[in-house]
Design brief:
The protein is built from 10 helices and 3 strands, in the order E-E-E-H-H-H-H-H-H-H-H-H-H. It is mainly alpha-helical. It has a domain at 22-65. A 3-stranded antiparallel beta sheet has the order 1-3-2, with no helix packed on it. Strand 2 and strand 3 (32-35) form a beta hairpin. Helix 2 (67-86) runs antiparallel to helix 3 and helix 3 (90-110) crosses helix 8. 9% of the residues are buried.
């Protein structure tokens, strides 16, 4: 392949317009085209990066002021510390937990009214993790500390003194534990942990008191409900007795009405029979009077017939 040479120099005619393959800058001299230096390209890229950074700085500041972003960062840092703790990397885990604790403390100071219960819980968990990992880290240091003296002792000509070698790592143990407690950040975290524990104890006491009051109110409610049910059952029973009494009263009234009707019928029948017997008793006297008025014939005897 042939390399194409880039045209340089002065153009001979203003009417000859050809596209240039390279970046160029036109000067005041007529028809003169020069290349852009590489240093100018670097300076331009640097200026562009600076402008982008200046524009992004307010956004980053706004994000850092957001309490939710700070809490999320502290939570993710604590999760990373927990992962390192499971991997037995206690020093790195302790650094992560301390950084998460500092973020929580910063969030508590800058935004005290943002989700106080959640922030206190997360701070308590981080403080407990710090205390736990401190013991594990100190134990790990004490276990790993006697390794170099053992190698040095092995290089020395054999004069067995196992007791002295074993005593060497025992002496630095008390000095290794108080070392991390000197830092002011850890002291502040411990104080915050104590406050959080006191606050948790207070909240637990209030919660227990509320549960007791709630259980008492529930028992009273059940008692009232049982009394209400008993009253309702008594009312239903009384209503049933009243309905039965009304039914019996109606039956008695019907029977009384029937008895009165039958009595009236009997009285009417008795009056009609008395009226019918009255003419029969009055007819015989006229017949007897007629018989008395009629002349009596003499009866014939056998002697008269002869």
């Amino acid at each position: 392949m042939q390399t194409r040479k880039e045209p340089t120099g002065v153009a001979h005619s203003p009417l000859l317009l050809q596209p240039m393959p390279h970046r160029c800058v036109a000067t005041r001299i007529a028809f003169v085209i020069i290349r852009t230096p590489r240093s100018m390209m670097k300076i331009r890229s640097i200026l562009l990066a600076a402008v982008v950074f200046c524009l992004a700085a307010p956004v980053l500041t706004a994000e850092s002021d957001d309490p939710s972003e700070t809490f999320l960062k502290a939570y993710m840092t604590a999760q990373q510390g927990e992962k390192l703790e499971h991997e037995n990397q206690f020093k790195a885990a302790l650094a992560k937990y301390r950084f998460a604790g500092s973020l929580i403390e910063q969030l508590r100071k800058a935004h005290s009214d943002w989700q106080p219960a959640i922030v206190e819980y997360r701070g308590r968990k981080v403080s407990e993790s710090i205390l736990r990992v401190q013991d594990k880290a100190s134990t790990q240091e004490s276990v790993n500390a006697p390794a170099p003296p053992i190698e040095n002792a092995a290089a020395v000509p054999p004069e067995p003194a196992p007791t002295q070698v074993a005593k060497e790592p025992v002496t630095p143990l008390p000095a290794a534990k108080p070392a991390p407690a000197i830092t002011p950040n850890e002291v502040a975290i411990e104080q915050a942990t104590r406050k959080l524990r006191d606050r948790v104890d207070q909240l637990e006491a209030e919660l227990q008191k509320s549960r007791t009051q709630m259980s008492a109110a529930e028992n009273e409610k059940q008692s009232l409900n049982s009394r209400l049910d008993e009253t309702r059952s008594k009312l239903d029973k009384a209503q049933g007795d009243l309905d039965k009494a009304k039914t019996a009263e109606k039956q008695v009234r019907d029977q009384l009405t029937q008895a009165q009707a039958s009595l009236k019928k009997t009285a009417a029948a008795g009056s009609n029979e008395g009226k019918a017997q009255a003419p029969i008793n009055s007819e015989p006297p006229p017949a007897k009077s007629v018989m008395k008025r009629m002349p009596t014939r003499p009866r014939r005897t056998k002697k008269s017939r002869v």
